[in-house]
Amino acid sequence: MEGLILLRTSHLPEDDRSEICVSSPKNFYIDTYSTLSIDGGTPYIKNDSLIKQCLKKEKIIKQKSDEHSRMLFPIFSGKEIECIIDIHGFIPTTDLQHIIEAIVNIYSNFLSVLHDNEHDTLTGLLNRKSFDHKFATQLNNLSNESHFDLPDDIEQRKTHNENQAWLAILDIDHFKKINDGFGHIYGDEVLLLFSNLLKSTFRRDDLIFRFGGEEFIVIVNNPTNQNSFNIFERFRKKVQDFEFPQIGKITVSIGIVKIDNLTPPITLIEKADQALYFAKDNGRNQTQSYHELIDSGDIKDKETTDDIELF
Question: Any idea what DSSP says for residue 311?
Answer without folding.
Answer: -
